[in-house]
């Protein structure tokens, strides 16, 4: 087994690194890594339905889609992530208990009684500190999990706080649980790096022939290319979302305004506006203009630049109208 400590904290690079190792390394691998503030959404999720768009924008939180299914998770430098990649018979690949056992064993050595519960969670006193997901590629499996160690819980809550009434779709929805940081349960204080090193030592001691490995320059070049071509793109992170309907109602000085959008592959196919607002010009002109526009702030702002919004929705500002589209 190759054990890889990754010092990079760029979420685009780190998600790309997982795919690169899964598809290009033949040996089993174990990796520990951290991300700067980011939201990592599951492969089959509607990204916009999982994030608090305004909070994410204000706090410069990156949003990245991962290879595996499951729900959205918040990462920061107080969150430690672990990844196993392994080969085997297809029916034996998916095994959440096997890959989370080393974490439970390390916590037990620290005097913490943690449990595997549900489909893929680790808990302490009934509160979740780790969510896990897996992705199978040919005869290889990628298992990864989050470990809340000293994460900023307020940021976690705010970044993932979404109004469920805005979206109607068949995408996988995240399940919010009561959560806790591992650091709150330690008998003696540890830093997240010291905790990382304990897990690394335990995995290496438990696997005969385990050895440390660092990415080569050619590895890093290939991973960076994959990050640029896939994990940094709007098409992967937002456009890959399943078809959805978006609905939002706002109160303005001009009255109530309800936005309804039908979105497919991240592109608006149909827009309709309802409400008790007054208008000088027909809002149908804006509905038509939004058809075919990417459901993202910059493309929408550019598409609306030619319109005097207050002529179509009296006493509704351009800023209010654009904000209502998310």
Written description of the protein model:
With 326 residues, the chain is an alpha+beta fold. It folds into two domains: 2-239, 2-Layer Sandwich (BirA Bifunctional Protein, domain 2), CATH 3.30.930.10; 244-323, CO dehydrogenase flavoprotein, C-terminal domain (Enolase-like, domain 1). It contains twelve helices and 15 strands. Helix 1 crosses helix 7. It is elongated, with a radius of gyration of 22 Å. The mean pLDDT is 91.
CATH class category label of the largest domain: Alpha Beta
Number of strands: 15
Q: What is the CATH architecture assignment of the largest domain?
A: 2-Layer Sandwich
Structural class computed from helices and strand pairing = alpha+beta
How much strand? 25-35%
Overall domain count: 2
The CATH superfamily label of the largest domain reads: Bira Bifunctional Protein, Domain 2
Range of helix content: 25-40%
Task: Describe this protein with a few key phrases.
four-stranded antiparallel β-sheet, 326 residues, 12 helices, BirA Bifunctional Protein, domain 2, 33% helix, Enolase-like, domain 1
Topology, element by element:
Layout: E1 2-5, H1 11-24, E2 29-33, E3 38-41, H2 53-58, E4 62-65, E5 73-75, E6 79-87, H3 90-93, H4 96-109, E7 114-117, E8 121-124, E9 127-137, E10 140-148, H5 153-159, E11 167-169, H6 192-206, E12 211-213, H7 217-231, H8 234-239, E13 244-252, E14 255-264, E15 267-275, H9 284-290, H10 297-304, H11 309-312, H12 318-323
Parallel strand pairs: 1-2, 1-12, 3-4
Antiparallel strand pairs: 2-6, 3-5, 6-10, 7-8, 8-9, 9-10, 11-13, 13-14, 14-15
């Amino acid at each position: 087994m190759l054990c890889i400590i990754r010092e990079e904290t760029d979420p685009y690079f780190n998600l790309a690194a997982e795919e690169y190792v899964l598809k290009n390394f033949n040996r089993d691998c174990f990796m520990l890594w951290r991300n700067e503030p980011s939201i990592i959404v599951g492969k089959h999720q509607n990204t916009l339905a999982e994030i608090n768009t305004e909070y994410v924008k204000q706090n410069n939180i990156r949003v990245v889609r991962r290879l595996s299914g499951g729900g959205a998770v918040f990462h920061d430098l107080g969150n430690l992530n672990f990844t196993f990649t392994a080969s085997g018979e297809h029916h034996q690949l998916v095994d959440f208990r096997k890959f989370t056992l080393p974490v439970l064993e390390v916590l037990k050595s620290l005097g913490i009684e943690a449990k595997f519960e549900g489909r893929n969670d680790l808990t302490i006193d009934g509160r979740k500190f780790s969510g896990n997901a897996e992705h199978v590629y040919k005869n290889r499996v990628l298992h990864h999990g989050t470990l809340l160690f000293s994460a900023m819980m307020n940021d976690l809550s705010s970044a993932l706080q979404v109004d469920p009434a805005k979206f109607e779709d068949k995408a996988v929805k995240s399940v919010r649980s009561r959560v806790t940081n591992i650091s709150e349960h330690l008998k003696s204080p540890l830093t997240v790096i010291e905790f990382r090193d304990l897990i690394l030592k335990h995995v290496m001691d438990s696997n005969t022939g385990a050895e440390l490995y660092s990415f080569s320059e050619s590895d890093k070049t290939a991973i960076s290319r994959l990050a640029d071509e896939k994990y940094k793109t709007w098409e992967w992170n937002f456009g890959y979302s399943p078809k959805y309907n978006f609905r939002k109602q706002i109160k303005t000085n001009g009255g109530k305004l309800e936005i309804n959008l039908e979105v497919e592959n991240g592109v608006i196919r149909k827009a309709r506006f309802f409400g008790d607002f007054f208008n000088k010009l027909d809002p149908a002109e804006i509905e038509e203009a939004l058809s075919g526009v990417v459901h993202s702030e910059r493309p929408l702002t550019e598409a609306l630049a030619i319109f005097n919004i207050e002529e179509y929705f009296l006493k509704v500002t351009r800023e209010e109208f654009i904000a209502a589209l998310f």
